[in-house]
Protein backbone atom coordinates (compact mmCIF):
# COMPACT_ATOMS: atom_id res chain seq x y z
CA UNK A 1 0.00 0.00 0.00
CA UNK A 2 1.27 3.44 -0.82
CA UNK A 3 -0.54 5.38 1.90
CA UNK A 4 -2.91 5.36 4.82
CA UNK A 5 -5.81 3.46 3.21
CA UNK A 6 -7.00 1.98 6.50
CA UNK A 7 -9.58 -0.28 4.96
CA UNK A 8 -8.66 -0.79 1.30
CA UNK A 9 -5.93 -3.34 1.83
CA UNK A 10 -6.66 -6.90 0.86
CA UNK A 11 -4.68 -8.63 3.60
CA UNK A 12 -2.84 -11.55 2.01
CA UNK A 13 -0.77 -12.40 5.05
CA UNK A 14 -2.95 -14.85 6.94
CA UNK A 15 -1.91 -18.07 5.21
CA UNK A 16 1.47 -16.84 3.96
CA UNK A 17 3.97 -14.06 4.38
CA UNK A 18 3.97 -12.81 0.81
CA UNK A 19 3.72 -9.24 -0.39
CA UNK A 20 0.65 -7.06 -0.01
CA UNK A 21 -0.64 -5.94 -3.38
CA UNK A 22 -1.23 -2.23 -3.73
CA UNK A 23 -4.92 -2.04 -4.59
CA UNK A 24 -5.02 1.72 -4.76
CA UNK A 25 -4.99 4.03 -7.72
CA UNK A 26 -2.57 6.94 -7.52
CA UNK A 27 -4.67 9.01 -9.89
CA UNK A 28 -5.23 12.63 -8.81
CA UNK A 29 -8.52 13.68 -7.28
CA UNK A 30 -11.21 14.36 -9.83
CA UNK A 31 -14.63 15.94 -9.68
CA UNK A 32 -17.08 13.11 -10.20
CA UNK A 33 -20.11 15.38 -10.55
CA UNK A 34 -22.01 15.07 -13.84
CA UNK A 35 -22.58 18.26 -15.91
CA UNK A 36 -26.18 19.45 -15.61
CA UNK A 37 -26.45 20.42 -19.29
CA UNK A 38 -24.54 19.10 -22.30
CA UNK A 39 -22.22 21.43 -24.16
CA UNK A 40 -23.56 22.88 -27.42
CA UNK A 41 -21.34 20.60 -29.48
CA UNK A 42 -23.13 17.57 -27.99
CA UNK A 43 -26.56 18.54 -29.29
CA UNK A 44 -26.38 16.48 -32.51
CA UNK A 45 -23.94 13.80 -31.37
CA UNK A 46 -25.02 10.16 -31.06
CA UNK A 47 -23.21 9.12 -27.88
CA UNK A 48 -23.78 5.47 -28.68
CA UNK A 49 -21.40 5.48 -31.62
CA UNK A 50 -18.92 8.33 -31.90
CA UNK A 51 -17.47 6.90 -35.08
CA UNK A 52 -20.89 7.05 -36.67
CA UNK A 53 -21.01 10.75 -35.89
CA UNK A 54 -17.77 11.24 -37.76
CA UNK A 55 -19.04 9.27 -40.74
CA UNK A 56 -22.18 11.40 -41.00
CA UNK A 57 -20.20 14.63 -41.18
CA UNK A 58 -17.65 14.19 -43.97
CA UNK A 59 -17.83 17.87 -44.80
CA UNK A 60 -16.67 18.89 -41.32
CA UNK A 61 -13.18 20.16 -40.79
CA UNK A 62 -10.64 17.81 -39.14
CA UNK A 63 -10.73 19.94 -35.98
CA UNK A 64 -14.53 19.73 -35.82
CA UNK A 65 -14.44 15.96 -36.35
CA UNK A 66 -11.88 15.55 -33.57
CA UNK A 67 -13.90 17.77 -31.21
CA UNK A 68 -17.12 15.84 -31.88
CA UNK A 69 -15.42 12.48 -31.37
CA UNK A 70 -13.81 13.63 -28.13
CA UNK A 71 -17.12 15.01 -26.85
CA UNK A 72 -18.88 11.75 -27.64
CA UNK A 73 -16.22 9.72 -25.85
CA UNK A 74 -16.45 12.04 -22.84
CA UNK A 75 -20.23 11.66 -22.73
CA UNK A 76 -19.93 7.88 -22.91
CA UNK A 77 -17.40 7.89 -20.09
CA UNK A 78 -19.68 10.09 -17.99
CA UNK A 79 -22.59 7.67 -18.49
CA UNK A 80 -20.36 4.75 -17.49
CA UNK A 81 -19.20 6.65 -14.39
CA UNK A 82 -22.80 7.34 -13.40
CA UNK A 83 -23.65 3.66 -13.75
CA UNK A 84 -20.65 2.67 -11.60
CA UNK A 85 -21.72 5.16 -8.93
CA UNK A 86 -25.21 3.66 -8.91
CA UNK A 87 -23.75 0.17 -8.54
CA UNK A 88 -21.60 1.34 -5.64
CA UNK A 89 -24.62 2.86 -3.88
CA UNK A 90 -26.46 -0.42 -4.41
CA UNK A 91 -23.61 -2.38 -2.83
CA UNK A 92 -23.57 -0.02 0.16
CA UNK A 93 -27.33 -0.42 0.54
CA UNK A 94 -26.93 -4.20 0.52
CA UNK A 95 -24.17 -3.93 3.10
CA UNK A 96 -26.48 -1.89 5.34
CA UNK A 97 -29.19 -4.53 5.05
CA UNK A 98 -26.65 -7.28 5.81
CA UNK A 99 -25.41 -5.34 8.84
CA UNK A 100 -28.89 -5.20 10.37
CA UNK A 101 -29.51 -8.87 9.59
CA UNK A 102 -26.21 -10.09 11.10
CA UNK A 103 -25.91 -7.79 14.11
CA UNK A 104 -27.00 -10.39 16.68
CA UNK A 105 -24.68 -13.03 15.20
CA UNK A 106 -21.79 -10.57 15.28
CA UNK A 107 -22.42 -9.64 18.92
CA UNK A 108 -22.67 -13.29 19.96
CA UNK A 109 -19.39 -14.14 18.22
CA UNK A 110 -17.75 -11.08 19.77
CA UNK A 111 -18.88 -12.12 23.26
CA UNK A 112 -17.29 -15.55 22.80
CA UNK A 113 -13.99 -14.05 21.62
CA UNK A 114 -13.94 -11.46 24.41
CA UNK A 115 -13.64 -14.27 26.93
CA UNK A 116 -10.37 -15.30 25.24
CA UNK A 117 -8.71 -11.90 24.94
CA UNK A 118 -5.77 -11.95 22.53
CA UNK A 119 -4.51 -8.50 23.47
CA UNK A 120 -4.60 -7.58 27.14
CA UNK A 121 -5.18 -3.89 27.98
CA UNK A 122 -2.02 -1.92 28.61
CA UNK A 123 -1.03 1.59 29.57
CA UNK A 124 -0.18 4.14 26.90
CA UNK A 125 2.58 6.01 28.69
CA UNK A 126 5.62 5.26 26.54
CA UNK A 127 5.18 5.87 22.82
CA UNK A 128 7.52 4.01 20.45
CA UNK A 129 6.92 6.47 17.59
CA UNK A 130 10.12 8.50 18.00
CA UNK A 131 12.19 5.33 18.23
CA UNK A 132 10.56 3.57 15.29
CA UNK A 133 10.02 6.42 12.83
CA UNK A 134 13.63 6.46 11.65
CA UNK A 135 14.00 2.67 11.83
CA UNK A 136 11.02 1.31 9.89
CA UNK A 137 10.33 1.69 6.18
CA UNK A 138 7.49 3.97 5.05
CA UNK A 139 5.20 3.79 2.04
CA UNK A 140 3.95 6.91 0.28
CA UNK A 141 6.73 9.08 1.70
CA UNK A 142 9.96 10.40 0.20
CA UNK A 143 12.13 9.62 3.22
CA UNK A 144 14.94 7.06 2.73
CA UNK A 145 14.62 3.46 3.94
CA UNK A 146 14.66 3.00 7.71
CA UNK A 147 17.77 2.18 9.70
CA UNK A 148 16.52 -1.39 10.09
CA UNK A 149 15.71 -1.82 6.40
CA UNK A 150 16.37 -5.36 5.23
CA UNK A 151 18.11 -5.89 1.87
CA UNK A 152 15.60 -6.50 -0.88
CA UNK A 153 17.09 -9.89 -1.75
CA UNK A 154 16.75 -11.03 1.87
CA UNK A 155 13.18 -9.75 2.16
CA UNK A 156 12.27 -11.63 -1.00
CA UNK A 157 13.81 -14.87 0.26
CA UNK A 158 11.87 -14.57 3.49
CA UNK A 159 8.64 -13.68 1.71
CA UNK A 160 9.06 -16.63 -0.67
CA UNK A 161 9.83 -19.14 2.08
CA UNK A 162 6.17 -20.19 2.38
CA UNK A 163 4.86 -22.60 4.98
CA UNK A 164 8.32 -24.07 5.58
CA UNK A 165 9.82 -20.70 6.49
CA UNK A 166 11.39 -21.96 9.72
CA UNK A 167 13.62 -24.41 7.87
CA UNK A 168 14.03 -22.51 4.60
CA UNK A 169 15.41 -19.40 6.31
CA UNK A 170 19.09 -20.26 6.66
CA UNK A 171 21.75 -19.18 9.12
CA UNK A 172 23.31 -17.14 6.34
CA UNK A 173 20.12 -15.08 6.19
CA UNK A 174 20.32 -13.86 9.78
CA UNK A 175 24.02 -14.25 10.65
CA UNK A 176 24.76 -10.56 10.10
CA UNK A 177 21.61 -9.20 11.71
CA UNK A 178 21.54 -7.47 15.07
CA UNK A 179 18.37 -8.30 17.02
CA UNK A 180 19.29 -6.21 20.07
CA UNK A 181 16.86 -3.44 19.02
CA UNK A 182 14.01 -5.76 19.96
CA UNK A 183 15.13 -5.62 23.60
CA UNK A 184 14.94 -1.81 23.45
CA UNK A 185 11.44 -2.09 22.01
CA UNK A 186 10.17 -3.55 25.30
CA UNK A 187 10.56 -0.09 26.86
CA UNK A 188 7.50 1.07 24.90
CA UNK A 189 3.88 0.14 25.53
CA UNK A 190 2.26 1.53 22.35
CA UNK A 191 2.99 2.96 18.92
CA UNK A 192 1.09 6.13 17.99
CA UNK A 193 1.44 6.06 14.22
CA UNK A 194 -1.36 8.58 13.64
CA UNK A 195 -0.23 11.45 15.87
CA UNK A 196 3.16 10.44 17.26
CA UNK A 197 6.56 11.42 15.87
CA UNK A 198 6.57 10.68 12.15
CA UNK A 199 5.29 11.81 8.74
CA UNK A 200 1.61 11.41 9.65
CA UNK A 201 1.79 13.86 12.53
CA UNK A 202 2.85 16.65 10.18
CA UNK A 203 0.73 15.55 7.24
CA UNK A 204 -1.02 18.74 6.16
CA UNK A 205 -2.94 17.62 3.09
CA UNK A 206 -6.67 17.07 3.35
CA UNK A 207 -6.69 13.54 2.01
CA UNK A 208 -5.63 10.77 4.37
CA UNK A 209 -6.28 8.29 1.59
CA UNK A 210 -2.87 9.23 0.18
CA UNK A 211 -1.09 9.75 3.50
CA UNK A 212 2.13 7.81 4.21
CA UNK A 213 2.04 4.67 6.33
CA UNK A 214 4.66 2.30 7.74
CA UNK A 215 5.47 -0.72 5.61
CA UNK A 216 4.11 -3.34 8.00
CA UNK A 217 5.81 -6.19 6.14
CA UNK A 218 8.91 -4.93 7.95
CA UNK A 219 7.54 -6.55 11.12
CA UNK A 220 6.67 -9.85 9.49
CA UNK A 221 10.10 -10.37 7.98
CA UNK A 222 12.00 -9.36 11.12
CA UNK A 223 9.79 -11.66 13.20
CA UNK A 224 10.43 -14.61 10.91
CA UNK A 225 14.18 -14.01 11.02
CA UNK A 226 14.17 -13.64 14.82
CA UNK A 227 12.23 -16.88 15.32
CA UNK A 228 14.26 -18.82 12.76
CA UNK A 229 17.48 -17.68 14.47
CA UNK A 230 16.09 -18.66 17.88
CA UNK A 231 15.36 -22.16 16.61
CA UNK A 232 19.09 -22.59 15.88
CA UNK A 233 20.28 -20.97 19.12
CA UNK A 234 17.58 -22.62 21.27
CA UNK A 235 16.33 -19.22 22.44
CA UNK A 236 12.66 -19.71 21.60
CA UNK A 237 11.36 -18.26 24.92
CA UNK A 238 13.16 -14.97 24.29
CA UNK A 239 12.18 -14.81 20.62
CA UNK A 240 8.53 -15.58 21.36
CA UNK A 241 8.51 -12.82 23.98
CA UNK A 242 9.94 -10.37 21.44
CA UNK A 243 7.47 -11.29 18.72
CA UNK A 244 4.48 -11.06 21.06
CA UNK A 245 5.56 -7.54 21.97
CA UNK A 246 5.99 -6.65 18.31
CA UNK A 247 2.44 -7.88 17.77
CA UNK A 248 1.08 -5.77 20.59
CA UNK A 249 2.76 -2.61 19.27
CA UNK A 250 1.25 -3.19 15.82
CA UNK A 251 -2.14 -3.77 17.45
CA UNK A 252 -1.79 -0.52 19.42
CA UNK A 253 -1.60 1.58 16.22
CA UNK A 254 -5.42 1.48 15.95
CA UNK A 255 -5.10 0.69 12.25
CA UNK A 256 -6.79 -2.28 10.62
CA UNK A 257 -3.55 -3.20 8.85
CA UNK A 258 -1.79 -2.99 12.22
CA UNK A 259 -4.28 -5.44 13.70
CA UNK A 260 -3.91 -7.83 10.78
CA UNK A 261 -0.12 -7.80 11.01
CA UNK A 262 -0.38 -8.37 14.78
CA UNK A 263 -2.42 -11.50 14.08
CA UNK A 264 0.14 -12.63 11.54
CA UNK A 265 2.94 -12.18 14.08
CA UNK A 266 1.04 -14.21 16.66
CA UNK A 267 0.54 -16.91 14.04
CA UNK A 268 4.29 -17.01 13.38
CA UNK A 269 4.99 -17.18 17.11
CA UNK A 270 2.57 -20.08 17.52
CA UNK A 271 4.11 -21.98 14.60
CA UNK A 272 7.67 -21.47 15.83
CA UNK A 273 6.90 -22.56 19.40
CA UNK A 274 5.11 -25.68 18.20
CA UNK A 275 8.04 -26.56 15.93
CA UNK A 276 10.59 -26.00 18.68
CA UNK A 277 8.55 -28.00 21.19
CA UNK A 278 8.42 -30.94 18.76
CA UNK A 279 12.22 -30.85 18.72
CA UNK A 280 12.35 -30.99 22.49
CA UNK A 281 13.32 -27.35 22.98
CA UNK A 282 12.09 -25.13 25.78
CA UNK A 283 9.47 -22.68 24.53
CA UNK A 284 8.74 -20.61 27.64
CA UNK A 285 5.68 -20.26 29.80
CA UNK A 286 2.12 -19.64 28.69
CA UNK A 287 0.18 -20.78 25.66
CA UNK A 288 0.15 -19.29 22.21
CA UNK A 289 -3.10 -17.99 20.77
CA UNK A 290 -5.02 -20.75 19.04
CA UNK A 291 -5.43 -20.77 15.27
CA UNK A 292 -9.22 -20.66 15.73
CA UNK A 293 -9.06 -17.55 17.94
CA UNK A 294 -6.73 -15.78 15.54
CA UNK A 295 -9.02 -16.57 12.61
CA UNK A 296 -12.11 -15.45 14.54
CA UNK A 297 -10.46 -12.17 15.53
CA UNK A 298 -9.53 -11.52 11.91
CA UNK A 299 -13.09 -12.17 10.73
CA UNK A 300 -14.62 -9.94 13.37
CA UNK A 301 -12.11 -7.13 12.68
CA UNK A 302 -13.08 -6.97 9.03
CA UNK A 303 -16.75 -7.28 9.87
CA UNK A 304 -16.53 -4.44 12.43
CA UNK A 305 -15.50 -1.96 9.74
CA UNK A 306 -18.47 -2.94 7.57
CA UNK A 307 -20.85 -1.83 10.31
CA UNK A 308 -19.33 1.65 10.04
CA UNK A 309 -19.60 2.06 6.26
CA UNK A 310 -21.99 4.65 4.79
CA UNK A 311 -25.67 3.73 4.84
CA UNK A 312 -25.70 1.55 7.95
CA UNK A 313 -28.36 2.88 10.40
CA UNK A 314 -26.93 4.75 13.39
CA UNK A 315 -28.47 2.41 16.03
CA UNK A 316 -26.87 -0.59 14.29
CA UNK A 317 -23.50 1.15 14.20
CA UNK A 318 -23.74 2.05 17.87
CA UNK A 319 -24.64 -1.44 19.06
CA UNK A 320 -21.89 -3.00 16.92
CA UNK A 321 -19.35 -0.70 18.58
CA UNK A 322 -20.67 -1.52 22.04
CA UNK A 323 -20.67 -5.31 21.64
CA UNK A 324 -17.57 -5.73 19.49
CA UNK A 325 -14.54 -7.68 20.72
CA UNK A 326 -12.08 -5.71 18.59
CA UNK A 327 -10.93 -2.12 19.32
CA UNK A 328 -13.83 0.22 18.46
CA UNK A 329 -11.60 3.10 17.32
CA UNK A 330 -10.21 0.99 14.47
CA UNK A 331 -13.71 0.66 13.00
CA UNK A 332 -14.65 4.25 13.86
CA UNK A 333 -11.59 5.72 12.15
CA UNK A 334 -12.15 3.61 9.05
CA UNK A 335 -15.85 4.42 8.93
CA UNK A 336 -15.20 8.14 9.36
CA UNK A 337 -12.62 8.20 6.58
CA UNK A 338 -14.87 6.14 4.31
CA UNK A 339 -17.89 8.38 4.82
CA UNK A 340 -15.96 11.53 3.94
CA UNK A 341 -13.92 10.01 1.12
CA UNK A 342 -17.18 8.80 -0.45
CA UNK A 343 -19.08 12.05 0.26
CA UNK A 344 -19.86 12.81 -3.38
CA UNK A 345 -21.40 9.37 -3.84
CA UNK A 346 -22.96 8.85 -0.44
CA UNK A 347 -23.41 12.05 1.66
CA UNK A 348 -22.07 11.56 5.22
CA UNK A 349 -24.42 11.39 8.17
CA UNK A 350 -24.62 14.30 10.59
CA UNK A 351 -23.60 12.10 13.54
CA UNK A 352 -20.17 10.67 12.93
CA UNK A 353 -19.61 8.51 16.00
CA UNK A 354 -21.47 7.14 18.95
CA UNK A 355 -20.86 9.17 22.13
CA UNK A 356 -18.36 7.98 24.69
CA UNK A 357 -16.13 6.01 22.31
CA UNK A 358 -12.95 7.51 23.71
CA UNK A 359 -11.36 7.82 20.27
CA UNK A 360 -8.84 10.56 19.64
CA UNK A 361 -10.66 13.75 18.64
CA UNK A 362 -7.73 15.10 16.63
CA UNK A 363 -7.60 11.94 14.53
CA UNK A 364 -11.34 12.17 13.93
CA UNK A 365 -11.05 15.84 12.98
CA UNK A 366 -8.39 15.07 10.38
CA UNK A 367 -10.36 12.18 8.93
CA UNK A 368 -13.50 14.30 8.70
CA UNK A 369 -11.61 16.83 6.57
CA UNK A 370 -10.44 14.32 3.99
CA UNK A 371 -11.40 15.14 0.40
CA UNK A 372 -13.67 13.00 -1.77
CA UNK A 373 -11.80 10.41 -3.82
CA UNK A 374 -12.18 9.19 -7.38
CA UNK A 375 -14.78 6.55 -8.16
CA UNK A 376 -12.08 3.96 -8.72
CA UNK A 377 -10.63 4.66 -5.28
CA UNK A 378 -14.12 4.61 -3.77
CA UNK A 379 -14.60 1.06 -5.03
CA UNK A 380 -11.28 0.09 -3.45
CA UNK A 381 -12.38 1.60 -0.14
CA UNK A 382 -15.67 -0.28 -0.05
CA UNK A 383 -14.12 -3.54 -1.22
CA UNK A 384 -15.83 -6.59 -2.73
CA UNK A 385 -18.36 -6.94 0.17
CA UNK A 386 -19.04 -10.65 -0.07
CA UNK A 387 -20.70 -12.70 2.65
CA UNK A 388 -21.04 -10.43 5.69
CA UNK A 389 -19.57 -12.72 8.35
CA UNK A 390 -17.14 -14.49 6.03
CA UNK A 391 -13.39 -14.68 6.57
CA UNK A 392 -11.96 -11.28 5.81
CA UNK A 393 -15.40 -9.68 5.94
CA UNK A 394 -16.12 -10.72 2.37
CA UNK A 395 -12.86 -9.42 0.96
Radius of gyration: 24 Å
Low-confidence stretches: 1-58, 351-355
Strand content: under 5%
Number of domains: 1
Question: Helix share of residues?
Answer: 40-55%
Strand line-up across the major sheet: 1-2
Describe the global form.
globular
Structural class: mainly alpha
Give me the number of helical elements: 15
Following the backbone from N to C, one meets helices and strands in this order, namely HHHEHHHHEHHHHHHHH
Largest sheet: 2 strands, antiparallel
Distance between the termini: 16 Å
Number of strands: 2
**Average pLDDT score:** 79
Word description of this protein:
This protein has helices at 50-55, 62-114, 129-133, 152-159, 165-168, 171-174, 181-185, 217-233, 236-251, 256-278, 291-307, 314-323, 328-341, 361-368, 375-382, and strands at 138-139, 213-214. It has one domain. The radius of gyration is 24 Å and the shape is globular. The protein is mostly helical. Strands 1-2 form a two-stranded antiparallel sheet. Mean pLDDT is 79; it is low at 1-58 and 351-355. Helices cover 50% and strands 1% of the residues.
Amino acid sequence: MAGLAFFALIIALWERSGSVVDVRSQAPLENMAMPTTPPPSLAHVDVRSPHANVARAPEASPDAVEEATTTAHDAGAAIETLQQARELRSRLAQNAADAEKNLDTYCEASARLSRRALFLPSSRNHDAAAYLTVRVDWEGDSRPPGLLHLPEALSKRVADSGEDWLTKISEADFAQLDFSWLATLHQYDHWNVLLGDGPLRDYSRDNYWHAPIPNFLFWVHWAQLRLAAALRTRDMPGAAHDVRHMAYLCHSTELLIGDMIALRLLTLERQARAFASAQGQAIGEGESASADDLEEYKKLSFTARRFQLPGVPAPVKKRALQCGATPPCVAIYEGTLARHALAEIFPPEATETAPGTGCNEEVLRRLQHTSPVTLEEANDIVGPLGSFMADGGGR
